[in-house]
Amino acid sequence: MSRTNDFSVLIGLDWASSKHDVCIQYADGTRELAVVKHSAEAIEQWITELHQQHPGQIAIALELSKGPIVYALQKYSFVTLFPINPTMLCRYRRALSPSGAKDDPTDASIALELLVRYPDKITPLKMADDKIRKLAFLVEERRRLVDEKKRYVNRLINALKQYYPQPLEWFTHRDSQLFVEFITRWPSLDRIKRAKPDTISRFLTSRGSFAKLVSPRLEAIKSATPLTYDSVVIESNKLLAITLANQILPIITAIKTFDQEIEAIYHEMPDAALYESLPGVGKCLGPRLLVAFGEDRNRFGSAQEVQKYAGIAPVTERSGKTAWVHWRWGCSKFIRQTFTEWSAKSVLYSYWAQLYYEQQKKKGNSHHQAVRSLAFKWIRILYRCWKTNTPYNETQYLKVLKERNSPLLG
Predict the structure, then answer these.
(1) In 118-188, which ranges are continuous DSSP H helix?
(2) What is the dihedral of CA 227, 230, 232, 234, to 10 degrees?
(3) Mean pLDDT rounded to a whole number for the chain
(4) Residue-wise pLDDT tens digits, 269-300
(5) Distance CA 228, CA 83 (A)
(6) 157-193 burial string, b = 16+ CB within 10 Å, else e?
(7) Is the domain of 112 the same as that of 138?
(8) DSSP state string for 370-410
(9) Single Gene Ontology BP term (predicted)?
């Protein structure tokens, strides 16, 4: 089935940071190549002139579902965007050009060819509700901030190990604001030893939960011995530690700001109660799971679709007598991470999840294999809850397992 009858113009677009190559097919079947500069003004002029010359809907196929060019074209009501999986386009290109030759105009032509020849394989981009789109952006960027903080914290820990390892023994949470502020205030052993005990005590008790550990920490500071007297090692790493600590502090503040915004939006969502019923979701994973499923109950037709979308369902490749099972490469890494992290947390809060995890470990599976296998089962359960808009009930699920004589409870 051709899309020619539905649109006045069909376009394949290969995006770049400074310009976009496009392959345009008109109603009479003729095609032409063009280059559009990446600027709001250039895109505006190109698309409006094209629409004036060819009234009607314009279809644009491209390798993106978000990004500057997508945002620029979304504002036009006469434009319908068709995101193409990059892997699909890459393999189609290889089929047409075994030599591996590649250029931007060719990719634009291939995107158009896929749109024309395989319309049932490419679905138009559907805009979600503004709240869930904003929530999706916030939870993903929050995770990037957490990863960024982790990177700096690891560097800070390594710097302290070179000259001042004692704080790593005094504090268990090395990514906390208390720890980082401690390092900026007392970045070396000689500095902390010169500090008054009352000053240290007031600092440690300022967070409340540290109050019971003040006396042991004061004794540890008093009896601490320098790791090295090498001034070059001490001064160089002290400067690095202070620098890293000062980089971590604003990230901690930013994460707290994101948390406040995420929480405010999340609790306004009708499905929030459903995800809060899940074991181990906490304040971070609930919003991420909500974003993974979305609010459109027609988005997924089966639990298997969700498992594939999340990259949890394994892929089997067969050739002759050889079969190879591996995990799914073409998926959102953030969504897969969301389900695996939640599954790992659920082991601590769900009775049957703990039994299943232990069962997988006894079979010789690694921690990550066991968690992914558990995520596979959780998606089936959550899909049912999501489809029927029913909060999860652990007692009810255990009852069902017992009625079915599940070997898990045997």
Answers:
(1) 130-163, 166-170, 177-185
(2) 20
(3) 90
(4) 999 999 999 999 989 999 999 999 998 888 89
(5) 58
(6) bebbebbbebbeebbeebbbeebbbbbeebbbbeebe
(7) no
(8) HHHHHHHHHHHHHHHHHHHT----HHHHHHHHHHTT-GGG-
(9) DNA transposition
Which structure tokens are listed for 219?
């004794």
Q: Which residues of 358-370 are buried (b: 16+ CB within 10 A; e: fewer)?
A: eebeeeeeeeeeb
CB-CB contact of 20 with 64 (8 Å): no
Number of domains making up the chain: 3
Model confidence at 210: pLDDT above 70: no
Integer distance in angstroms from the first to the last C-alpha of the chain?
A: 53
Supply the pLDDT for residue 311: 87
List the CATH number of the domain containing 41: 3.30.420.40
Q: For residues 136 and 83, give the distance between their C-alpha atoms in angstroms, rounded to a whole number.
A: 18
Judgement on whether residues 31 and 139 belong to the same structural domain of the protein:
no
Q: Is the domain of 140 the same as that of 246?
A: yes
What are the structure tokens assigned to 304, written together?
A: 């298997």
- What range defines the domain where residue 113 resides? 9-121
Long-range CB contact pairs, 89-96, < 8 A, 24+: 89/63, 89/114
Two structure tokens written together for 93? 């290109």
